[in-house]
Known about the structure:
The protein has twelve helices and 23 strands. By secondary structure, it is of the alpha/beta class. It has a nine-stranded mixed sheet, sandwiched between helices. Strands 15-16-17-18 form a four-stranded antiparallel sheet. The protein has a three-stranded parallel sheet with strand order 4-3-5, covered by helices on one side. Strand 22 (376-385), helix 11 and strand 23 (412-415) form a beta-alpha-beta unit. Helix 1 runs antiparallel to helix 2 (27-43) and helix 1 runs parallel beside helix 6 (172-184).
Amino acid sequence: MLPWVDSAAARRPDHPALIAGHETLTWAALAERAGAVSAALAAQGVGEGDRVAIALPAGIDFVATLHGCLRLGAVAVPIDLRLGEVERKAVTAGADLVVDGPTPNAQRPTPDHAVLSDDAAAMLIHTSGTTGAPRPITLTHGNWAAHAWASAAALGHPTDERWLCCLPLSHVGGLGILVRAAIHATTVLLHERFDAGVVATALHEGVTGVSLVPTMLGRVLDAGLECPPLLRVALIGGGPVPPGMLRRALDAGIPVAQTYGLTEACSQVTAEEPREASGTAGRPLHGVELALDAGGEILVRGPTVAPGSVDDDGFVHTGDLGVLDRRGRLTVVGRRSETIVSGGENVAPAEVEAALESHPAVSEVAVFGRPDPEWGERVVAAVVLHEGSTAAPDDLRAHAAARLARYKVPKEVELRAALSRTASGKVRRAELR
């Protein structure tokens, strides 16, 4: 099959592919840039199956290098530039080449693209590492193609799509935006970093889709986002949207669609329809099989799943806990490893967080267990209040007690200025403990 960038250029050569800062590249121009990168990589001995670490900021050079790798059949390894020296050495250890500067524009014959099979490795992506060191996950060309079409079936893919990407390109959520645009030959508006005011403005300027984590959604709402005229879907992943924030978003005319996903499945596993507002993560994407084991752990298999990530039963055992409603919609209730056992009772942090987040003064909550000589673990909540709001810890405990069983009510409420999060928006609970 043709590389995605070459196929898009053949079908829509003059259609905008990438808008980054003040520069716009058509698909023909992006394919030319990717071809120049392919030539430069080949001149350095990079070939099919070799790993190329991409240590570049989000921008045209990153995207051209990504597609330059893919058209050679090399494996792209995106690197988070915020990593420390020791961390970066760990994630680049197996790379055959590290690209950490501007990609060459030297005139060389563009090499023929590799014969790309569905089971050939496309990218090696490191998980966000909330429960330990980041783990490498290898996704194939076939995984990504299945993802792009399954996501399109769930969310639609109009030919005039302009999707805003402000997620890190070192993680699967941001990379998925680039891949879907290439496969469907649509447009990405790429921001180097997230800025709530800049994103809120951009969403009023022709953007039709955006991917955010709940924290980002809250910040663009605080920045005054309201009724963006062409926005048809705001895809929210990385954790459930607090009910109060969901109501704010819908009242502001934001077509929210919650999603559940993981790196091992090219990001999305389930998705709501835009504005469905079910309070769940939606239904499994087409072709994706989702099951719950006897303990409630979410199991996933299908064509989007990395072959090296499945267990003997053919499923990825996610470590996440969930429930399914009668319509097959998934609600994620937490991580198996994060379940708090207090006085012999199991407490799901997500349930306690939802109860506290319903308080009007509360902006963010993270619930975790702390060792306790009497209870084994005691339930503790770290709470961030809305700017200008006040609430005493005892008031917040009383609010939770009116909504939860007694053993689930936090024994401590700690007011924090902020919660430590990974680049993909997940709370670092180990740091809070």
